[in-house]
Specification:
IFT81, 3 helices, coiled coil
């Protein structure tokens, strides 16, 4: 009568042992994959920089991008104004040269003599 229970207990023990072996093998595989992932992340960080940004780092980064964008737009507008002003001044100079009969060399000589 007890032999039936002993057989069942032995079968359950064998199944448990097999499952424990499978579990340990899977844990080893998980650990090796985790190590490999860590190594790959380190390689990536060395090549491309940090993989993820923290929330406050991202906010600082976004703020710096907004500042740079605003500065770029402001400087671009200023450059456009300067180019427009240069075009106007060149046209004015051209008009004045057509109206002034004195040769350009004479004006330069007079400027040197005034110094």
């Amino acid at each position: 009568r007890l032999s039936v229970y002993k057989q069942q207990a032995n079968l359950v023990a064998k199944k448990k042992e097999m499952v424990m072996k499978d579990k340990s093998q899977l844990e080893e595989a998980r650990d090796t994959l985790a190590k490999e992932l860590t190594m790959k992340e380190r390689e990536y960080e060395q090549m491309k920089g940090h993989k993820f940004m923290k929330k406050d780092e991202f906010k600082n980064y976004a703020a710096s991008l907004r500042d740079k964008s605003a500065k770029f737009k402001r400087l671009k507008a200023e450059l456009s104004e300067l180019r427009h002003e240069v075009a106007v001044l060149l046209r004015t100079e051209q008009i004045l040269q057509t109206k002034d009969p004195t040769p350009a060399g004479l004006v330069e000589t007079e400027a040197m003599l005034e110094k």
